Amino acid sequence: MKLQHRPLDAISTARNHVGKRAQTGKAMPWLLAALVLLGGVGVWWWKLRTADPAPATATPASPVPGGGGGARRFGGANSAQPVSVQTVRQQDIRVSVSAIGSIAASNTAIVRAQVSGVLQSLNFEEGQQVQAGQTLAQIDPRPFQASLSQVEGVLARDKAQLDGARVDLARYRDLLAQDAVPKQQLDTQEALVRQLEGTAKADQGSVDSARLQLSYTRVTAPIAGRVGLKQADLGNVIQSGDVNGIVSVTQTRPIALVFSVPAIHVPQIAARLRANQPLPVEAWDRSGSRQLAVGRVATIDNAIDASTDTIKVKAMFANTDDALFPNQAVSVRLQLDTLFKVLAVPSAAMLRGAQGFYLYVVNADNSVSTRLVKPGAVDGDWMAVEGPLQPGEKVVVDGVDRLRDGAKVEVIAADPKQRAGASPGRRAAASAAPSGASGTRGANRPSTAASPATDSAAGERPAWMDRLPPEVVEKLMKLTPDERREWIQKRREERDKAGSNGRPGSAPN
Question: 404, CA 20 to 30 Å: which among 50, 151, 205, 266?
Answer without folding.
Answer: 50
